[in-house]
Amino acid sequence: MSKIKKVVLAYSGGLDTSIILKWLQETYGCDVVTFTADLGQGEELEPARKNAELMGVKDIFIEDLREEFVRDYVFPMFRANAVYEGVYLLGTSIARPLIAKRQIEIAHETGADAVCHGATGKGNDQVRFELGYYALDPDIKVISPWREWDLHSRSDLIDFAEKHQIPVPKDKRGEAPFSCDANLLHTSSEGKALEDPWAQAPEYVYQRTVSPESAPDTPTVIEIGFEKGDAVSVNGKALSPATLLAALNDYGRDNGIGRLDLLENRFVGMKSRGIYETPGGTILLAAHRGIEEATLDKGAAHLKDELMPRYAELIYNGFWFAPEREMLQAAIDASQEFVTGTVRLKFYKGSVSVIGRTSPYSLYSEEIATFEKDSVYNQKDAEGFIKLNALRLRLLARRRGR
User: Fold this and answer.
1) Which of 71, 72, 154, 179 is an active site residue?
2) The total number of structural domains that make up the chain
């Protein structure tokens, strides 16, 4: 790689990214700009500023992106009811394009000619970050330390940190029991204690939810209001996107909702086990599908369900900024024009149930659907409908008879 003058590092302030920061300074002899995004991970971020200052960083960006994250990334994804491999709500995947976008913006603002992430060479995140970088700046230089340096173990990292006087917390000196990534939508845990897919995950892995067995013995009932496919209120109270998701996280936490143990197929080809907690997202998905039941036409609803796996895979693989994702998003958003109304949900020991839905744009007609006598549906019409649909089946049957 040609001479690097300045690099924007996605910086958490923790041990690994502090080691990366020092490694960049030593290896490339360049200025480092740190960028720390508050996506609702629930950690104090000011230590990141102090750690960066101690290592001589002059340009330090710490930004609260929670509202943008939920409004412009999480909500559009939930309009599609997106789940990867049938169950995963894409909590890590959807955060990466926003971080990548802001890194590129900061690079342009500060005159940096490179960006750097801390993702390993085995995972999906390296792909997600770098596809985002190149989509937004095709000429940006990308540094991926885990694919370049000769630090191959936890002890190598600790030795490097001690050599360069980087503080090493006591809980970082041994092998970490598992790695964790968090944001307002979810928490993911993987590695070490979780690598045996037959062994049940220890209860201490779960950080955002009580166990379903420990959840209240009485159900909790709430109502979520929607406008054009996006949740806008809880129990009649209007809330901003991030505040609303945080409120749903609280309900999910208390009721043991949103736990997932998944053996997934990574984009790079291997299978990996992840323990995910998406309490508010699990509630939001159920509620959104509930309001769509009343407001979406059959053809539109079924087409959305056909498109969803492709849309989810694009997000999982890092193609948020790709034209095909934007094309699908346009179709999905068009379907949401009348997805407005209120959904009532019941939570009980890990479960979420839709128990009511109402909308001024509902396509449900009690007059038509009733089992009682009605004057709007002629049941005799069904005979011709059935015979026309059966025509080819009858012809096939006659051929078999011959």
Assistant:
1) 179
2) 3
